Amino acid sequence: MTIATSTKPQINWVNTLFFIALHIGALFAFVPGNFSWNAVGVALLLYWVTGGLGITLGFHRLVTHRSFQTPKWLEYFLVLCGTLACQGGPIEWVGTHRIHHLHSDTDRDPHDSNQGFWWSHIGWLIYHSPSHSDVPRFTKDIAEDSVYQFLQKYFILIQVALGLLLIYLGGWSFVVWGIFVRIVWVYHCTWLVNSATHKFGYRSHDSGDSSTNCWWVAVLVFGEGWHNNHHAFQYSARHGLEWWEIDLTWMTIQLLQVFGLATNVKLADKKQ
């Protein structure tokens, strides 16, 4: 006789302790000696570089969905910016996101929103996920690229190098704000796309899942908050499809087009 047993998810202690350390480091921003407007400026600049150019423009719209093309040197630069967000290496990030779209809001979705806000926001990251074993199948287009391999393998050391540069430029306050505060802020902004935009906001399209358009998430993540639009038209370089749906990343792509740096730009056909 076979007795059915349920397998309890195992905590990923590496991720868990890493997240705890980063959040503790960010709390040092409240120490008066660690505050300066220059340090805040560094954090804001890196927020845009890593979260806007790196994650949103590079990892997501360019590499994951191939919604436009750029010269290879620019692709590598944007992927480097995304790597500096410290959300894992680019191969793992892209593969996980492609899996999410294929199985959105099902039990095979790495951050299935049906498991609750906490799970889709951060819970899925502090447990070992079986979806990680599927990443190679979804990243065959980039897995053999030596630049992607380097960034995947050394993304922590690259962050350390940035930290050393910030110490040289402005001391410990630059590290507190430019590394710890900035990483934690970009983390939660990115995670809100997985959690808040499957719970709050409005739906313009039947996308087959619970994705929503949430204006305040769009503000925080450079246009990614128009998530229902994105799930309905995953290939589209433009996520804000109505005039009031401001999409800063789409504006960036338009600017790249002006200089001939963005080509084969794919757009949603709202008649579908």
Automatic annotation (TrEMBL):
Residues 37-248 form the Fatty acid desaturase domain. InterPro entries: Acyl-CoA_DS, FA_desaturase_dom. One of its GO terms (biological process) is fatty acid biosynthetic process. Pfam families: FA_desaturase (PF00487). This is Acyl-CoA desaturase. Keywords: Fatty acid biosynthesis, Fatty acid metabolism, Iron, Lipid biosynthesis, Lipid metabolism, Membrane, Oxidoreductase, Transmembrane, Transmembrane helix. It is found in: Membrane. It is a multi-pass membrane protein. One of its GO terms (cellular component) is membrane. It comes from Umezakia ovalisporum FSS-62. It comes from the Bacteria. Its cofactor is Fe(2+). GO terms for molecular function: oxidoreductase activity, acting on paired donors, with oxidation of a pair of donors resulting in the reduction of molecular oxygen to two molecules of water. Belongs to the fatty acid desaturase type 2 family. The chain crosses the membrane at residues 12-31, 37-59, 150-168.
